[in-house]
Amino acid sequence: MPVYMWFFLGSMAIGVPIVFCLGFAPLATFTLMGKPIFYKMIVQRMYGGVNQFPLMAIPFFILAGNVMNTSGITMSLVRLSNVLVGHLRGGLAQVNIFVSILFAGLSGSAVADTSAIGSILIPAMEKDGYSREFSAAVTAASSVIGPIIPPSIIMVIYAYVMGVSVGGLFAAGIIPGLIVGILLMTIAYIISTKRNYPKRGKMASLREIVLAFRKASLPLLTPVIIIGGILGGVFTPTEAAGIAAGYAIFLSLFVLRTISLKDIPKMLYETAITSSTILLIVGTATVFGWLVSTSQLPNKIADLLFSITANKYILFFIINLVLLVTGMFMDAGPAIMILGPVLAPTMIKMGIHPLHFAIVMSVNLTVGLATPPLGLILFVASGLTGLTIESIFKELIPFLLIEVIVIFLITYIPALSMTIPRLLGLLY
């Protein structure tokens, strides 16, 4: 194994944040080699890694999500979800999952989903008789849908790193995201029936449904604008992100009037903090990826995988296991930056379509956000409830199993993710 990998794995093992592990490994390697001249290359590669037009979509999508959260738009989605599915057994659990499906089309972030929806629905579920552990687990499990249904920050990163179509990747995530949501609602129904969790007394009337839709209609136009604009060729994904943020601000300021001008600086500050964290990881991962590629590690790993098996289905199974384990210890963004250039070329050589592998990898690493020991969603849910990661994870297990099943479904039934991109002419 190359020396820089020892530095990377060693620093990560002792608890160094991943962003510094990615930067430290090349720095230590060049120092050990006695080649300080390459120090300049580290800075240049970091700057070049973040100085990319497609990456401007990230802060705009984050800003749109922050505006939606602050303006109370989440509550209109919760009311709509309650009207549509609240009458099912485990009503608020069903609402929690259904609103995550709707919210996914607004934010593209699992963490934003957990914090926004969890802060509203976890206390409400507890008050309604659900255990705190179950409430937190449902919130964490459903938040995984956020980066799968477009827009998705993770997919923007993958598209930038691997050169695949952002619009195609967005389109590929629609059906997998809906499948995850439907199956999570099914599991929630089974558990709620077994534990006799409550439900609404009756289905909502047509008038109630129409009223709830009317109040949520303007926010729900956001994904239509984003996806429709991209697929229609009206604007690029980066421009779509800017339009989404502008639309969210206009909607909140002048239509709903739930925020004022004095709220905007705080939202911009929070967006800057979150965006800088992501982009710093992108920068250091770019340096690390450059070192990986120049050392021919992808070719060596490809040769190793080919020596294990020449069957692409078995190889895909092995890679899925590798990604699941990676997701337990590494955030999705840096994992994509590191493993994308290593694994994708191997699978493409085996005849797997680049977009197919892209959606499988994105969904797989997204599920990792809800797995211990380093699942970011779990830490957010823990912070909201005061529960330990272990207690939440025990309730989360059946939901995670469903999400793993979906990973293998889209792996071995490509039509589930590839049909919409094919119909839209986005496969090439």
Structural summary, described in words:
By secondary structure, the chain is mainly α. It has one domain. 78% of the residues lie in helices and 0% in strands. It is built from 21 helices and no strands. The protein has helices spanning 3-13, 18-32, 39-50, 57-70, 73-85, 91-107, 110-127, 132-143, 153-162, 166-172, 174-195, 206-231, 237-255, 264-294, 297-308, 312-329, 332-349, 354-367, 376-385, 389-412, 415-423. Helix 3 (39-50) packs across helix 14 (264-294), helix 4 packs parallel to helix 13 (237-255) and helix 15 (297-308) packs across helix 17. The chain is globular and about 70 Å long. It starts with a helix and ends in a 5-residue tail after the last helix. The model has no long low-confidence stretch (mean pLDDT 85).
Describe the protein's topology.
Elements: H1 3-13, H2 18-32, H3 39-50, H4 57-70, H5 73-85, H6 91-107, H7 110-127, H8 132-143, H9 153-162, H10 166-172, H11 174-195, H12 206-231, H13 237-255, H14 264-294, H15 297-308, H16 312-329, H17 332-349, H18 354-367, H19 376-385, H20 389-412, H21 415-423
Helix pairs in contact: 1-2, 2-14, 3-14, 4-13, 4-14, 5-6, 5-12, 6-7, 6-8, 6-11, 7-8, 7-19, 8-19, 8-20, 9-17, 9-18, 10-21, 11-20, 12-13, 14-17, 15-17, 16-17, 16-18, 16-20, 17-18, 18-20
Distance between the termini: 36 Å
- The tally of structural domains comes to 1
The number of helical segments is 21
Instruction: Report the principal-axis shape.
Output: globular
Radius of gyration: 22 Å
Mean of the pLDDT scores?
85
Low-confidence stretches: none
Strand content: under 5%
- Oligomeric composition of the shown chains: single chain
* Biggest sheet details: none
The counted number of beta strands is 0
Order of helices and strands: HHHHHHHHHHHHHHHHHHHHH
Q: How much helicity do the residues have?
A: over 70%
Classification by helices and strands:
mainly alpha
